[in-house]
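// run 5 | inverse folding | seed 20
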């Protein structure tokens, strides 16, 4: 509400008194002697100090206008909603979960794998990957029985698949105590790891025993030596007489350890090629 609107409201409610009503009454003209007599006998001495200036009424009206305006303005201010006493609620923006980099997961897994620690290796795997052939070999003691030692190189991202990101981890290996006779390490092997949501969901790979030279330099000579010297152990150490696949059981493990040790001694002494 503006001051002009307030002024009009006050004037309508309390009109300013008509100041002309305070003008002196115009007395009729009297004879000279009568006027003089009235001045002498009827004179009334008015104390100027008791007279109030006519502009005082205007001042009172103006003060009333200001007071009413202030009252209306004060009420208008009170009608406004008071500011909130509680601080505004801040909505936190959800942050994406922190995930371990894919390469770090793969590298940590193969490190545990090379250390022949199946529990540590399994901690990086999803359920399906735990049933892989690689984990079967690690958990059955195959590496220890055949003295397999894998040395992994740096893992690298290769591709993405519908199930995750594929990481390849190449490695060299020794087996059947090949390092003790000065053979190897044998190259060209690798492990493929598919990583999704911070876990390895699939494992595959190639154990390059043929093209690397391991079969010709170690596998075939050792199996021939066992057949020639310990024929009764052939079906203990292998699945059949072709000696193509090894047999790793609780009964065969001590035999593998004993016969590989004897073979290394024979090779290093020159008793067998």
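// decoded
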């Amino acid at each position: 509400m503006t001051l002009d609107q307030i002024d009009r409201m006050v004037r309508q409610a309390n009109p300013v008194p008509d100041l002309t009503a305070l003008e002196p009454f115009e007395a009729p003209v009297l004879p000279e002697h009568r006027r003089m007599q009235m001045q002498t006998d009827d004179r009334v001495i008015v104390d100027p100090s008791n007279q109030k200036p006519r502009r005082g009424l205007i001042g009172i009206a103006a003060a009333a206008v200001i007071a009413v305006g202030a009252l209306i303005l004060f009420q208008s201010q009170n009608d406004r909603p008071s500011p909130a006493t509680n601080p505004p609620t801040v909505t936190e923006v959800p942050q994406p979960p922190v995930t371990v980099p894919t390469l770090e997961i793969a590298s940590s897994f193969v490190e545990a794998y090379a250390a022949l620690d199946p529990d540590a290796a399994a901690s990086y795997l999803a359920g399906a990957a735990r049933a892989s052939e690689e984990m079967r070999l690690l958990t059955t003691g195959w590496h220890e029985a055949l003295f397999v030692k894998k040395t992994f190189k740096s893992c690298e991202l290769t591709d993405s698949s519908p199930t995750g990101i594929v990481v390849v981890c190449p490695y060299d290996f020794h087996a059947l105590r090949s390092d003790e006779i000065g053979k190897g390490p044998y190259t060209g092997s690798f492990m493929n790891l598919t990583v999704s949501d911070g876990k390895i969901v699939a494992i595959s790979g190639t154990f390059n025993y043929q093209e690397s030279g391991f079969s010709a330099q170690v596998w075939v000579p050792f199996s021939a030596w066992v057949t020639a010297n310990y024929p009764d152990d052939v079906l203990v150490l292998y699945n059949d007489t072709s000696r193509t696949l090894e047999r790793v059981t609780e009964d065969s493990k001590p035999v593998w350890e004993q016969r590989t040790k004897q073979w290394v001694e024979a090779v290093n002494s020159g008793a067998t090629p």
